[in-house]
């Protein structure tokens, strides 16, 4: 696990705009801890690597995955939620649908074999490899408004996944109306017997992976979740590695080094 930035249950007092104070155990300004244990992994599926990039802590990322190609997402630091949206690359009006996906499979969790369906009920991607028990698609995405409601007004200036999605969507000609309920790769959101949900300690670890195959050309948008108010990643946002392979091409040599030369996003990009 990554280094914890602050002792558990330490109470900190913050000033409010009205001149008062608020007490909280949530640290402000949690950032990636240099020297954290990282495992950059490799593709879960053999084939020719057509794209290999890492997403900096807190940053957004997107790409178009060609039909038949497989995207492997590597949880480099462990328990780092990769919030994810999917769109038909040729017609973004058709996009990932949580209710269609869950209704077709009759299960609330995303596992190996789950077909990620669109708002038209058509397959967008299929989970072909998965190294944790279950993946989440009902927990939603954090944002400034929801963070303020859950954690207090002293965190209202923090950007979240919603802000990351909006920043990346603008680069793809999309906007607010195109944001829908999302996937949360590597986040643990159990559904209790009474229907209650909870965001609890993750089940992932450095180097754990999930792989999804594109059933059509798919625009994949990811927010490397800041999680600055949630203890599930020890208040230590870590990188993600995104590897796209063509399974029909010649296998590329395994390369588990940090793909730093191929960085396409930074925390500053997400601000």
Notes on the protein architecture:
The chain is α+β, with helices and mostly antiparallel strands. It has one domain (12-254, 262-270). Helices cover 11% and strands 26% of the residues. The chain contains four helices and twelve strands, in the order E-E-E-E-E-E-H-E-E-H-H-E-E-E-E-H. It has helices spanning 98-105, 144-151, 161-171, 267-270; strands spanning 12-15, 21-24, 48-55, 60-65, 70-75, 82-88, 115-117, 123-130, 183-185, 208-214, 218-224, 240-246. The strands form three sheets. Strands 3-12-5-10-8-7 form a six-stranded antiparallel sheet. A four-stranded antiparallel sheet has the order 4-11-6-9. A two-stranded antiparallel sheet has the order 1-2. The two termini are 27 Å apart. The relative contact order is 0.31. Residues 1-9 and 260-271 have low confidence and may be disordered.
Rg from C-alpha positions? 18 Å
Give the SSE string: EEEEEEHEEHHEEEEH
Share in β-strands: 25-35%
Low-confidence segments, given as residue ranges, are 1-9, 260-271
Total number of strands: 12
Number of domains: 1
Query: How would you write the strand order of the largest sheet?
Result: 3-12-5-10-8-7
Biggest beta-sheet profile? 6 strands, antiparallel
N/C terminus separation: 27 Å
Count the helices. How many? 4
Helix content: 10-25%
What is the molecular shape? Answer: globular
Structural class: alpha+beta
Average of the residue pLDDT scores = 82
